[in-house]
Design brief:
Elements lengths: L20 H39 L21
Amino acid sequence: MQSAQPIIVRVVEEPLRTTNVADVLIGALGLAGVMTLSALLLGLTLGGLLIAWKRLRARYNLEPDEDAHAMRVTPSSSTP
């Protein structure tokens, strides 16, 4: 019941693109640029948030009492 003609499958591979030094350098510089830009944006965002937080605390007088966490350690005068 099988057909007498065999099934022939031809696998066509895509041509390989060669990678040269210029491709590697462009890729590395692109990655370094993306990382630098993202670090800069993240730093500016967090810095802006910290400045805004400090200004809000100062505006609404939410600064903690300066002496609240200070430990007052004085030398004791012990007599022998």
